[in-house]
Write a structure and sequence with these properties.
6-stranded mixed β-sheet, 43% strand, 127 residues, 3 helices, SnoaL-like
Length: 127
């Protein structure tokens, strides 16, 4: 079921803006727009809280996968203060998507992200 509330879709759009921001200053601005000040992010590789730590995780992904962008796959599904959605990490050069997963976010009363629980469904094989 698609998100019934634009609140969820807007929060997810800001989330992708943060992950796809170019350069540290843009990442910092986008994280501040998407997350509550004490917001958190957790996936199998990281568990952090606060804008600086979240921006650092995003910067690390950019370093590991230069020339890639995060893309929403499918619809955002949400209710109350929670939404879930699937995504892929796509090569800007050839369209390959070596990483994919889904995230569950909870929002505060202002529509900013309180917490992200990320799950990895597809990851590249270790070299």
């Amino acid at each position: 079921m698609a998100a019934r509330n634009e609140h969820h879709a807007s929060a997810v759009a800001r989330y992708f803006e943060a992950w796809n921001a170019a350069g540290p200053e843009e990442v910092t601005r986008a994280v501040a727009a998407a997350w509550a000040p004490d917001g958190g992010y957790s996936d199998p590789l990281a568990e952090v809280r606060g804008h600086d730590a979240i921006a650092s995780v995003i910067g690390g992904a950019h370093e590991q996968f230069p020339g890639f962008s995060f893309r929403l796959t499918g619809a955002v599904d949400g209710h109350h203060d929670t939404a879930r959605f699937a995504w892929e990490l796509v090569s800007d050069a050839d369209g390959s998507a070596p990483v994919a997963g889904f995230d569950v976010i909870t929002l505060d009363a202002d529509g900013r992200i309180k917490d992200v629980l990320g799950f990895l469904d597809r990851v590249p094989a270790a070299a």
